[in-house]
Amino acid sequence: MKVTEASFVKSFCKLADDGFRLGFHERNGGNLSYRIREEEIAEIRDQLSFDRPFTAIGTEVPTLADTYFMVTGTGQYFQNVLEKPAETCGIIQIDGTGTQYRTVWGFSTGGRPTSELPSHLMNHAVKMAATGGKHRVIYHCHPANIIAMTFVLPMDDAVFTKELWESMTECPVVFPQGVGVIPWMVPGGKDIAVATSEKMKKYDVAVWAHHGIFCSGDTFDATFGLAHTVEKSAEIYVKVRSMTDKKTQTITRDDFIELAKAFGFTLSQEIMAAMKE
Ligand code: 13P
Ligand code: ZN
Questions:
Q1: 150 and 255 within one domain
Q2: Of the chain's two ends, which shows fewer C-beta atoms within 10 Å, N or C?
Q3: Is residue 94 domain-resident?
Q4: Per-residue pLDDT tens digits for 4-59
Q5: What is the pLDDT of residue 277?
Q6: Among this protein's residues, is 116 annotated catalytic?
Protein backbone atom coordinates (compact mmCIF):
# COMPACT_ATOMS: atom_id res chain seq x y z
CA MET A 1 0.00 0.00 0.00
CA LYS A 2 1.20 3.54 -0.76
CA VAL A 3 2.00 5.37 2.49
CA THR A 4 -0.32 8.24 1.60
CA GLU A 5 -3.20 5.75 1.20
CA ALA A 6 -2.85 4.36 4.73
CA SER A 7 -5.79 5.41 6.88
CA PHE A 8 -3.57 6.69 9.74
CA VAL A 9 -1.79 8.98 7.25
CA LYS A 10 -5.11 10.33 5.96
CA SER A 11 -6.31 10.99 9.53
CA PHE A 12 -2.97 12.62 10.42
CA CYS A 13 -3.22 14.99 7.45
CA LYS A 14 -6.87 15.77 8.11
CA LEU A 15 -6.11 16.78 11.70
CA ALA A 16 -3.34 19.10 10.47
CA ASP A 17 -5.74 20.71 8.02
CA ASP A 18 -8.54 21.05 10.58
CA GLY A 19 -6.10 22.75 12.96
CA PHE A 20 -4.89 25.12 10.26
CA ARG A 21 -8.45 26.09 9.31
CA LEU A 22 -9.25 26.93 12.94
CA GLY A 23 -6.27 29.30 13.12
CA PHE A 24 -4.22 27.14 15.50
CA HIS A 25 -1.16 27.05 13.19
CA GLU A 26 0.26 30.35 11.98
CA ARG A 27 3.25 29.76 9.70
CA ASN A 28 5.09 26.65 11.01
CA GLY A 29 3.44 26.87 14.45
CA GLY A 30 2.53 23.57 16.08
CA ASN A 31 3.47 19.95 15.47
CA LEU A 32 1.84 16.51 15.50
CA SER A 33 3.00 12.95 16.11
CA TYR A 34 1.38 9.51 15.98
CA ARG A 35 2.72 6.22 17.41
CA ILE A 36 2.13 3.82 14.53
CA ARG A 37 0.69 0.33 15.19
CA GLU A 38 2.77 -2.71 14.19
CA GLU A 39 0.11 -3.86 11.73
CA GLU A 40 0.03 -0.40 10.13
CA ILE A 41 3.80 -0.51 9.62
CA ALA A 42 3.51 -4.03 8.15
CA GLU A 43 1.14 -2.69 5.47
CA ILE A 44 3.60 -0.04 4.26
CA ARG A 45 6.95 -1.69 5.10
CA ASP A 46 7.89 -2.15 1.41
CA GLN A 47 7.63 1.66 0.97
CA LEU A 48 10.09 2.42 3.78
CA SER A 49 13.85 2.81 3.34
CA PHE A 50 16.28 1.96 6.12
CA ASP A 51 19.48 3.42 4.70
CA ARG A 52 19.56 6.81 6.44
CA PRO A 53 21.79 7.26 9.49
CA PHE A 54 20.47 7.42 13.05
CA THR A 55 20.45 10.87 14.75
CA ALA A 56 20.29 11.70 18.48
CA ILE A 57 16.77 12.48 19.74
CA GLY A 58 18.12 14.78 22.46
CA THR A 59 16.51 12.78 25.25
CA GLU A 60 16.01 9.13 26.27
CA VAL A 61 12.79 7.18 25.64
CA PRO A 62 13.80 3.54 26.29
CA THR A 63 10.19 2.29 26.40
CA LEU A 64 9.73 3.48 22.81
CA ALA A 65 12.71 1.47 21.48
CA ASP A 66 12.10 0.03 17.98
CA THR A 67 8.76 1.83 17.50
CA TYR A 68 7.67 4.04 14.58
CA PHE A 69 6.12 7.50 14.56
CA MET A 70 4.64 9.75 11.95
CA VAL A 71 5.70 13.35 12.74
CA THR A 72 5.43 16.78 11.18
CA GLY A 73 8.66 18.41 10.02
CA THR A 74 10.41 21.35 11.60
CA GLY A 75 9.66 24.60 9.81
CA GLN A 76 6.79 23.01 7.87
CA TYR A 77 3.44 24.75 7.59
CA PHE A 78 0.31 22.81 8.67
CA GLN A 79 -1.38 24.63 5.80
CA ASN A 80 0.58 22.40 3.37
CA VAL A 81 0.31 19.01 5.10
CA LEU A 82 -2.83 17.77 3.30
CA GLU A 83 -1.46 18.69 -0.12
CA LYS A 84 2.18 17.63 0.41
CA PRO A 85 2.37 14.95 3.13
CA ALA A 86 5.66 13.40 1.94
CA GLU A 87 7.40 16.77 2.00
CA THR A 88 5.96 18.22 5.22
CA CYS A 89 5.92 14.99 7.29
CA GLY A 90 7.97 11.89 7.86
CA ILE A 91 7.94 8.45 9.43
CA ILE A 92 10.75 7.82 11.89
CA GLN A 93 12.03 4.66 13.53
CA ILE A 94 13.38 4.79 17.09
CA ASP A 95 16.53 2.71 17.63
CA GLY A 96 16.91 -0.17 20.08
CA THR A 97 18.15 2.10 22.89
CA GLY A 98 15.48 4.82 22.62
CA THR A 99 18.09 7.55 22.19
CA GLN A 100 18.24 7.88 18.39
CA TYR A 101 15.87 8.00 15.41
CA ARG A 102 16.12 7.73 11.65
CA THR A 103 13.75 8.79 8.91
CA VAL A 104 12.35 5.85 6.95
CA TRP A 105 9.82 7.74 4.83
CA GLY A 106 9.00 11.36 3.94
CA PHE A 107 10.85 14.67 4.46
CA SER A 108 11.31 14.29 0.72
CA THR A 109 12.91 17.69 0.23
CA GLY A 110 15.46 17.09 2.97
CA GLY A 111 13.58 18.08 6.13
CA ARG A 112 13.70 16.57 9.59
CA PRO A 113 11.25 16.07 12.47
CA THR A 114 9.81 18.92 14.50
CA SER A 115 12.10 20.72 16.94
CA GLU A 116 9.67 19.56 19.63
CA LEU A 117 10.51 15.88 19.00
CA PRO A 118 11.92 15.46 22.56
CA SER A 119 8.61 16.71 24.07
CA HIS A 120 6.51 14.57 21.72
CA LEU A 121 8.44 11.37 22.41
CA MET A 122 8.67 11.89 26.18
CA ASN A 123 4.92 12.59 26.25
CA HIS A 124 4.27 9.46 24.19
CA ALA A 125 6.34 7.41 26.64
CA VAL A 126 4.44 8.78 29.65
CA LYS A 127 0.98 8.47 28.10
CA MET A 128 1.67 4.99 26.70
CA ALA A 129 2.50 3.83 30.24
CA ALA A 130 -0.36 5.75 31.88
CA THR A 131 -3.04 4.45 29.49
CA GLY A 132 -1.83 0.88 28.98
CA GLY A 133 -0.83 1.71 25.40
CA LYS A 134 -4.13 3.35 24.39
CA HIS A 135 -2.86 6.88 23.71
CA ARG A 136 -1.13 7.24 20.35
CA VAL A 137 -1.51 10.90 19.34
CA ILE A 138 0.34 13.95 20.68
CA TYR A 139 -0.72 17.34 19.28
CA HIS A 140 0.86 20.74 19.88
CA CYS A 141 -0.85 23.93 18.65
CA HIS A 142 -0.93 27.70 19.24
CA PRO A 143 -4.58 28.69 19.86
CA ALA A 144 -4.96 32.41 20.65
CA ASN A 145 -7.37 32.39 23.60
CA ILE A 146 -5.65 29.81 25.79
CA ILE A 147 -2.38 31.70 25.17
CA ALA A 148 -4.13 34.95 26.19
CA MET A 149 -5.22 33.35 29.49
CA THR A 150 -1.58 32.68 30.40
CA PHE A 151 -0.98 36.46 30.63
CA VAL A 152 -3.80 36.94 33.12
CA LEU A 153 -4.13 33.94 35.43
CA PRO A 154 -1.52 32.63 37.87
CA MET A 155 0.39 29.60 36.56
CA ASP A 156 -1.59 27.15 38.68
CA ASP A 157 -3.18 23.91 37.45
CA ALA A 158 -6.27 24.25 39.67
CA VAL A 159 -6.91 27.90 38.76
CA PHE A 160 -6.73 27.22 35.01
CA THR A 161 -8.82 24.08 35.31
CA LYS A 162 -11.52 25.84 37.35
CA GLU A 163 -11.84 28.68 34.83
CA LEU A 164 -11.93 26.30 31.86
CA TRP A 165 -14.42 23.94 33.51
CA GLU A 166 -16.62 26.90 34.48
CA SER A 167 -16.64 28.44 31.01
CA MET A 168 -18.50 25.64 29.25
CA THR A 169 -20.59 22.80 30.74
CA GLU A 170 -19.05 20.00 28.65
CA CYS A 171 -15.48 20.80 29.77
CA PRO A 172 -15.37 18.70 32.96
CA VAL A 173 -16.84 15.84 30.91
CA VAL A 174 -14.13 16.16 28.23
CA PHE A 175 -11.16 16.69 30.57
CA PRO A 176 -12.18 15.53 34.08
CA GLN A 177 -8.55 15.32 35.17
CA GLY A 178 -8.06 19.04 34.42
CA VAL A 179 -5.13 20.75 32.74
CA GLY A 180 -1.52 21.27 33.79
CA VAL A 181 0.23 24.60 33.27
CA ILE A 182 3.91 25.25 32.70
CA PRO A 183 5.56 28.66 33.12
CA TRP A 184 7.37 30.13 30.13
CA MET A 185 10.33 28.03 29.01
CA VAL A 186 12.58 27.91 25.95
CA PRO A 187 10.81 25.64 23.43
CA GLY A 188 12.36 22.73 21.60
CA GLY A 189 14.69 21.17 24.16
CA LYS A 190 14.89 18.51 26.81
CA ASP A 191 13.99 20.81 29.75
CA ILE A 192 10.54 21.70 28.42
CA ALA A 193 10.10 18.04 27.40
CA VAL A 194 10.76 16.87 30.97
CA ALA A 195 8.47 19.55 32.49
CA THR A 196 5.65 18.68 30.06
CA SER A 197 5.94 14.94 30.52
CA GLU A 198 5.74 15.42 34.31
CA LYS A 199 2.37 17.19 33.83
CA MET A 200 1.23 14.53 31.36
CA LYS A 201 1.51 11.87 34.09
CA LYS A 202 -1.65 13.47 35.55
CA TYR A 203 -3.29 15.32 32.67
CA ASP A 204 -4.08 14.92 28.96
CA VAL A 205 -3.50 18.66 28.39
CA ALA A 206 -0.47 20.80 29.22
CA VAL A 207 -0.61 24.57 28.71
CA TRP A 208 2.68 26.28 27.85
CA ALA A 209 2.64 29.90 29.04
CA HIS A 210 2.61 32.45 26.19
CA HIS A 211 3.06 29.63 23.67
CA GLY A 212 0.28 27.02 23.27
CA ILE A 213 -0.92 23.59 24.37
CA PHE A 214 0.06 19.93 24.17
CA CYS A 215 -2.76 17.37 24.06
CA SER A 216 -2.68 13.58 24.19
CA GLY A 217 -5.33 11.10 23.10
CA ASP A 218 -6.12 7.64 21.77
CA THR A 219 -7.44 8.75 18.38
CA PHE A 220 -6.89 11.74 16.08
CA ASP A 221 -10.50 12.83 16.63
CA ALA A 222 -10.30 12.63 20.42
CA THR A 223 -6.99 14.49 20.58
CA PHE A 224 -8.08 17.25 18.24
CA GLY A 225 -11.46 17.44 19.97
CA LEU A 226 -9.69 17.96 23.28
CA ALA A 227 -7.58 20.86 21.96
CA HIS A 228 -10.67 22.34 20.28
CA THR A 229 -12.72 22.09 23.48
CA VAL A 230 -10.00 23.71 25.64
CA GLU A 231 -9.63 26.56 23.15
CA LYS A 232 -13.40 27.12 22.80
CA SER A 233 -13.69 27.33 26.58
CA ALA A 234 -10.72 29.72 26.70
CA GLU A 235 -12.46 31.88 24.09
CA ILE A 236 -15.58 32.09 26.28
CA TYR A 237 -13.39 32.96 29.29
CA VAL A 238 -11.72 35.77 27.34
CA LYS A 239 -15.12 37.10 26.20
CA VAL A 240 -16.47 37.07 29.76
CA ARG A 241 -13.35 38.80 31.13
CA SER A 242 -13.65 41.37 28.35
CA MET A 243 -17.18 42.22 29.51
CA THR A 244 -16.70 42.15 33.27
CA ASP A 245 -14.35 41.38 36.16
CA LYS A 246 -17.17 39.76 38.10
CA LYS A 247 -19.43 36.99 36.81
CA THR A 248 -23.11 37.44 37.71
CA GLN A 249 -23.61 33.66 37.85
CA THR A 250 -21.52 30.65 36.97
CA ILE A 251 -21.28 26.85 37.18
CA THR A 252 -20.42 26.09 40.81
CA ARG A 253 -18.28 23.41 42.47
CA ASP A 254 -21.51 21.64 43.56
CA ASP A 255 -22.72 21.76 39.95
CA PHE A 256 -19.52 19.95 38.88
CA ILE A 257 -20.28 17.21 41.43
CA GLU A 258 -23.86 16.89 40.07
CA LEU A 259 -22.51 16.76 36.52
CA ALA A 260 -20.00 14.03 37.36
CA LYS A 261 -22.79 11.96 38.97
CA ALA A 262 -25.14 12.42 36.02
CA PHE A 263 -22.51 11.60 33.39
CA GLY A 264 -20.74 8.91 35.45
CA PHE A 265 -17.16 10.22 35.46
CA THR A 266 -14.66 11.05 38.21
CA LEU A 267 -13.31 14.56 38.60
CA SER A 268 -9.73 15.15 39.76
CA GLN A 269 -9.92 15.07 43.55
CA GLU A 270 -6.82 17.26 43.76
CA ILE A 271 -8.41 20.01 41.66
CA MET A 272 -11.74 19.71 43.51
CA ALA A 273 -9.90 20.01 46.86
CA ALA A 274 -7.99 23.08 45.63
CA MET A 275 -11.30 24.69 44.55
CA LYS A 276 -12.60 24.40 48.13
CA GLU A 277 -9.77 26.50 49.57
P1 13P B 1 8.59 23.19 14.48
O2 13P B 1 8.43 23.93 13.16
O3 13P B 1 10.03 22.81 14.72
O4 13P B 1 7.64 22.03 14.59
O5 13P B 1 8.25 24.21 15.65
C6 13P B 1 7.00 24.83 15.74
C7 13P B 1 6.60 25.07 17.15
O8 13P B 1 5.44 25.27 17.40
C9 13P B 1 7.61 25.06 18.22
O10 13P B 1 7.05 25.04 19.49
ZN1 ZN C 1 4.97 25.77 19.47
A1: yes
A2: C
A3: yes
A4: 999 999 999 999 999 999 999 999 999 999 999 999 999 999 999 999 999 999 99
A5: 76
A6: yes
87-137 pLDDT, tens per residue?
999 999 999 999 999 999 999 999 999 999 999 999 999 999 999 999 999
Calculate how far, in angstroms, residue 76's C-alpha sits from the geometric centre of ligand 1: 8
229 lines ligand 1 (CB under 6 A): no
Q: Based on the structure, what is the number of domains in the chain?
A: 2
Quote the ligand 2 centre to 261 CA distance (angstroms): 37
Say if ligand 1 is within 6 A of residue 116 CB: yes
In a domain, 197, yes or no: yes
What's the gap in Å between 212 CA and the centre of ligand 2?
Answer: 6
Q: Which atom of ligand 1 is nearest to the CA of 73?
A: 4
Q: How confident is the model at residue 165 (pLDDT cuts 50, 70, 90)?
A: very high
Q: Assess if residue 125 is contained within a domain.
A: no
Half-sphere exposure of 38 (CA within 13 A, CB side): 3
pTM for this predicted structure: 0.98
In short, whether 75's Cβ falls inside 6 Å of ligand 1 is yes
Q: Residue 158 belongs to a domain with what CATH number?
A: 3.40.225.10
- Residues 147 and 244 placed together within one structural domain of the fold: yes
Q: How many CB atoms lie within 10 A of CB 227?
A: 26
Distances (CA, A) of 213 to 82, 142, 194: 22, 7, 15
Residue closest by Cα to atom 1 of ligand 1: 74
Candidate list 26, 43, 87, 116, residue with the active-site label: 116
Residues ≥6 apart with Cβ < 8 Å to 213? 140, 141, 143, 146, 205, 206, 207, 227, 230, 231
Instruction: Quote the domain boundaries for residue 75.
Output: 1-115
The pLDDT value recorded for residue 276 is 83
| Each residue's pLDDT tens digit, 22-37 | 999 999 999 999 999 9
Decide which of 227 and 1 is more confident: 227
Taking the centre of ligand 2 as the mean of its atom positions, its distance from the CA of residue 29, in whole angstroms, is: 5
